[in-house]
């Protein structure tokens, strides 16, 4: 009888230990994050079929990267007249701020979208803002409506009422997901609240946000660190698309971008890459001379807004040709691209997958279309994104032998401005014959006039 009782207690002990191990294993697995989706540029009044593909991807986290709504009001384009808002002679802006009530209504409309509502039921949603949800196109620290709009944006994200984000100046924040050893840190920057005027080469983040970012990067290490910026960090297409149009990016604030790269190098933090939005197309860029390992920037833009949707379908080939022609020295160009330019100008979202069970651990970053199919992608072992002995000040000058170290602004003039050269040559081809026709017509009219006078 006593022996049977001992065997009974032994069986209970083994079973309890086994159950404990299973529960602990399941808990760790539940906390593990291996799929993250992100997107930007979502007009709340436009159809948003892409949510189906995002839900099918089944992300554990979704990150908004700005222009989560289009809150400001766009005025009709006027090339001539007393108030001109397009062309080199414009004298007024194309956008005006909406009222607080209008902004709130637009956020409510975006939040009630059926596809987005389904995503929110099963996925953790976080985010930052860009200019159109900040309240005004291309606006910075001078915008008067930023305090009220910060509250509305945090309400949209279901930010708790006691959150520090509701008490600070700006919406920057950080999150850590996953168990120890497999943690992912997400740092979301605010590139609006403290940003100095464009062309000033001043600050993007402001002193308080810089202090916060330094603490975040020098803090506890994580396997992966994702830095979300509403505007592109690595690419600076404005250096090659001017003087026709300019896009916002860190490249237009070169001192700030250098400071960011130096901070990353000095922190010796590994596994860092950027995600961004804003530009209405998708691409992946890479810079090899910042941290001692390849530094990627995955741009997914947008949920509804896309450059090819602006022009009729028969002209899509022209947009793709111009994208291929535009010099982009830091863009990743390989066989994983659907388009020859390795950009994608239709609605898209970003996808991050981490295979924690692979040896070595593998990181896959992609831009995907409305069907969930990849259009641009990079796959790399996480071991390749680790900090080594590196000094940004010296290495960013001597690393030009590396493939992705030539900044767009440092390209020879004939390469950097080939888009403008092509445009001016094409214009000349059209204008010169037209001028010739006008000259011939004028000459004929003069001769006819003289002939009539003689008669």
Describe the protein's architecture and organization.
The chain has helices spanning 2-31, 51-57, 100-111, 114-122, 131-134, 146-156, 207-217, 238-241, 254-267, 316-325, 392-398, 413-416, 418-454, and strands at 35-39, 61-65, 73-74, 95-96, 124-128, 173-177, 184-188, 224-228, 272-276, 283-287, 295-299, 349-355, 362-368, 374-381. Mean pLDDT is 87; it is low at 12-29 and 397-401. With 455 residues, the protein is of the alpha/beta class.
Taking strands numbered 1, 2, ... along the chain, how are they ordered across the largest sheet? 5-2-1-12-13-14
Count all strands and give the number.
Answer: 14
Main pleated-sheet profile: 6 strands, mixed
Could you say which structural class the secondary elements and strand pairing correspond to?
alpha/beta
Rg, Cα atoms, Å: 27 Å
Number of H- or I-type helical stretches? 13
Strand content: 15-25%
What is the CA–CA distance across the termini?
Answer: 142 Å
Instruction: Name the overall outline.
Output: globular
Averaged pLDDT: 87
Helix fraction, binned, reads: 25-40%
Low-confidence stretches: 12-29, 397-401
N-to-C series of helices and strands: HEHEEEHHEHHEEHEHHEEEHEEEHHH
How would you briefly describe this protein structure?
The chain has 455 residues and is α/β, with parallel strands linked by helices.
Structure keywords:
single chain, 455 residues, alpha/beta, 6-stranded mixed sheet, 13 helices, globular
Q: What is the topological layout?
A:
Elements: H1 2-31, E1 35-39, H2 51-57, E2 61-65, E3 73-74, E4 95-96, H3 100-111, H4 114-122, E5 124-128, H5 131-134, H6 146-156, E6 173-177, E7 184-188, H7 207-217, E8 224-228, H8 238-241, H9 254-267, E9 272-276, E10 283-287, E11 295-299, H10 316-325, E12 349-355, E13 362-368, E14 374-381, H11 392-398, H12 413-416, H13 418-454
Parallel strand pairs: 1-2, 2-5, 7-8, 8-9, 9-11
Antiparallel strand pairs: 1-12, 3-4, 6-7, 10-11, 12-13, 13-14
């Amino acid at each position: 009888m006593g022996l049977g009782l001992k065997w009974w207690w032994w069986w209970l002990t083994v079973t309890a230990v086994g159950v404990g191990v299973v529960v602990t294993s399941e808990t760790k697995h539940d906390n593990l994050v291996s799929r993250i989706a992100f997107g930007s540029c979502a007009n709340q009044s436009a159809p948003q079929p892409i949510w189906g593909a995002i839900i099918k991807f089944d992300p554990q986290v979704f990150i908004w990267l700005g222009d989560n709504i289009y809150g400001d009001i766009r005025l009709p384009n006027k090339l001539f007249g007393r108030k001109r808002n397009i062309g080199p002679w414009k004298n007024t802006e194309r956008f005006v701020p909406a009222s607080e009530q209008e902004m709130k209504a637009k956020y409510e409309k975006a939040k009630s979208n059926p596809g987005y509502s389904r995503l929110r039921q099963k996925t953790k949603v976080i985010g930052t803002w860009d200019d159109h949800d900040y309240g005004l196109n291309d606006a910075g620290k001078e915008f008067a409506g930023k305090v009220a709009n910060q509250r509305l944006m945090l309400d949209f994200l279901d930010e708790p009422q006691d959150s520090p984000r509701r008490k600070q100046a700006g919406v920057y924040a950080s999150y850590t997901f996953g168990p120890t050893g497999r943690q992912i840190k997400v740092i979301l920057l605010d590139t609006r609240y403290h940003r100095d005027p464009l062309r000033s080469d001043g600050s993007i983040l402001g002193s308080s946000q810089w202090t916060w970012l330094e603490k975040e990067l020098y803090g506890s290490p994580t396997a992966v660190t994702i830095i979300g910026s509403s505007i592109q960090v690595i690419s600076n297409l404005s250096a090659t698309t001017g003087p026709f149009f300019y896009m916002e990016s860190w490249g237009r604030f070169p001192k700030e971008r250098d400071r960011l790269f130096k901070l990353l190098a000095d922190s010796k933090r590994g596994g860092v890459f950027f995600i961004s939005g804003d530009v209405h197309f998708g691409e992946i860029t890479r810079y090899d001379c910042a941290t001692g390992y390849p530094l990627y920037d995955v741009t997914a833009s947008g949920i509804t807004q896309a450059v090819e949707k602006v022009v009729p379908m028969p002209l899509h080939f022209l947009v793709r040709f111009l994208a291929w022609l535009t010099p982009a020295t830091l863009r990743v160009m390989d066989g994983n691209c659907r388009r020859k330019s390795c950009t994608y100008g239709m609605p898209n979202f970003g996808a991050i997958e981490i295979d924690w069970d692979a040896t070595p651990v593998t990181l896959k970053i992609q831009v995907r279309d409305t069907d969930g199919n990849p259009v641009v992608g990079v796959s790399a072992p996480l071991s390749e994104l680790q900090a080594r002995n590196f000094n940004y000040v010296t290495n960013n000058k001597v690393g030009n032998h590396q493939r992705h170290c030539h900044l767009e602004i440092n390209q020879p003039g004939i390469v950097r401005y080939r888009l403008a050269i092509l445009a001016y040559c094409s214009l000349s081809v059209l204008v010169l014959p037209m001028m010739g026709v006008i000259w011939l017509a004028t000459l004929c009219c003069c001769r006819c006039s003289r002939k009539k006078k003689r008669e």
